[in-house]
Each structure stands twice: as C-alpha cells, then as structure tokens.
Amino acid sequence: MTEWDIKKLQILRTLRDRGTVTATAEALLMTPSAVSQQLTNLAKQLGVRLLEAQGRRVRLTDAAHLVLRHAEAVFAQLERADAELDGYLRGEAGQLRVAAFSTAVPALVVPAVRQLRTAHPGLDIRVREAEAAEAYELLTAGEVDLALSLAAHAPSVRDPKFSRVPLLADPLDVALPAGHPLAEAPGLRLADLAAEPWIFGGSGPWSEITTAACEAAGFVPEQAHSASGWTAILAMVEAGMGVALVPRMASADRRNGAGVVMRVLSADQPRRHVVAAVRRGAEEGPAVARVLAALRQAAAARETVQQN
C-alpha cells in the first residue's frame, strides 16, 4: 500500500497555495532546502513525480494535483477529528454511562439528559437502571461512569475508590386510602399511623427506610403486605389494604390519583437522601462535571417544585 505522509502532504498543499518553495518555507517556518527534501521524499514514497521545473520556479504535476484532491478529503476529516477531540476535552462530546435506581431515572436523569441534549448535543448519555449494589459493581468495573443511589446504600464517604456528590433530600409522604379517617386530619404525624397495617418491601432499601422512619417516630410498623413497585403499593393503598410511605419523587405524578390521598407529614417529615458517585478523581473530567451539573440542576428544580 502507498505510504501517505500527512506532514509532507501539507507541505505540498502549501506549495500549491503559495506558488514558490521560498514562500512555502516562510509560511511553514522551514528552510527552502528542507521543503525541497521533504517533497522529494514524498515523491519517492508515492512513486510519482510531483514537481517539474518551470523556468526558475517549479510547478505541480497532474499527479500532484490528483494526490492533493484526495488529500483534501483527509485534511477535512482531520479537521473534524480535531474539532470533535476538542469538544471531548471540553466535555462537550463523547459518551458517558449512568446507572440509576428506578425512581431517579424519570425524576433526575431524564431531565438532566434533556438539558444536556440542548446544551451539548455531542455528549452521548447512556442510562442503565440499577439498584445500589449493582450500580456500584458496575462503577467499580468501569462499565458505568456515574451511579445514582440513596445515601444510605452508597459507599462510605471514606471509601478511597469513590467520590460522592449530594443531589437531593427527597421527602417521604404517606399514602392513605381515600376516605380514611386520617386522610384529612390536620397536622398528621407518622406516630398517628402506628396502629395501621403497612405496605412496604419485604427486604432491601425500602423496607429499611420505612422501618427506620417509623421507629424514629416511636413504633415498629406492622407489615400487612409486601411489594417493591410503586404501582403495586399504591394499588393496594387504594384498595384500603394499608398505608405506605412513598418518596415524593415516585408520587409526583400520582398526587391526584383517584382512591389515594398523599399527605405531607408536617411535624416529622422523613427524607431519603439521593447521591451521585463517580470513581475518585473522575469528577474533575469535563464530561462528568457537565453531567453532575445537569443532575444538580434537575435536583434543584425538583426541590423547588416540592416546596410549592
């Protein structure tokens, strides 16, 4: 295969544009003899004559013009590569992979992706739903670049492998069946529901969060039914089978659903804390920094909505 030397092709291109070896040397900060030597070597590499004498000057041969026609496509592609690489270095291009738990995807990740698509369309965000244990396994293995989880199930802040970034304190509201005696009670407290049958997961983070919140209010909840998905939990609440704590991120689109009343616990509002984590040091990368900024913006917008 013919050997194409980009640097020598650029010299040939400059000679075509400048007209003389001397002008080419001045433009490229080279000596005229160096220009001539490089072009002689290029001709040998390509196996064709590139220059011919024209009085005291030289002119490009037809073969040289043919070579440059193809070289222009190469130069254009290199310009595009330089521009894309520059965008990558500024965090405006490239691919970044995010793992996030189920309720964080529509509440935080999707708004962040929408914002980034508008501001940095060259940045390709790939999203994978994963609960905390899997998300951090993926992060450790280098299969994702950023993981969202609840703070209670994130690695310790002292873990040298990760950097944690707080995103959101998500309030937990209580879901009651419509017509429940406490559905309209003023100043509802979690302790007021101590005698109620409760619905929450049999294990995992939501079981721990519900149990911990109730114990902090002074009672151990009676688990009447077990479910892990919010659709199933709220369907059971609507059927009058029990009450449940529901994160506001998960209930935002269901607040006015028929059969379920969402009540804010005014005096003892429990919260779950959402954090992002990256491999330590990666937060300084421009693409990761842009995604973290977009997630913070989405979290701030959600907190504003929650306060209104």
Please provide a written account of the structure.
The chain is α/β, with parallel strands linked by helices and 308 residues long. The chain has helices at 6-18, 21-28, 32-46, 62-89, 104-119, 132-141, 205-216, 230-238, 248-251, 286-307, and strands at residues 51-54, 57-60, 94-100, 123-129, 146-150, 162-177, 197-199, 222-225, 244-247, 260-263, 271-279. The strands form 3 sheets. Strands 3, 4, 5, 6, 9, 10 and 11 form a 7-stranded mixed β-sheet that branches. Strands 1-2 form a two-stranded antiparallel sheet. The longest helix is centred in the first third of the chain and has 28 residues, at 62-89. The chain is rod-shaped.
Layout of helices and strands:
Elements: H1 6-18, H2 21-28, H3 32-46, E1 51-54, E2 57-60, H4 62-89, E3 94-100, H5 104-119, E4 123-129, H6 132-141, E5 146-150, E6 162-177, E7 197-199, H7 205-216, E8 222-225, H8 230-238, E9 244-247, H9 248-251, E10 260-263, E11 271-279, H10 286-307
Parallel strand pairs: 3-4, 3-5, 7-8
Antiparallel strand pairs: 1-2, 5-11, 6-9, 6-10, 6-11
Helix pairs in contact: 1-2, 1-3, 1-4, 2-3, 5-10
Pfam family, one: LysR_substrate
Family: Belongs to the LysR transcriptional regulatory family.
Domain HTH lysR-type: 4-61
Brief write-up:
This protein has ten helices and eleven strands. The chain is of the alpha/beta class and 308 residues long.
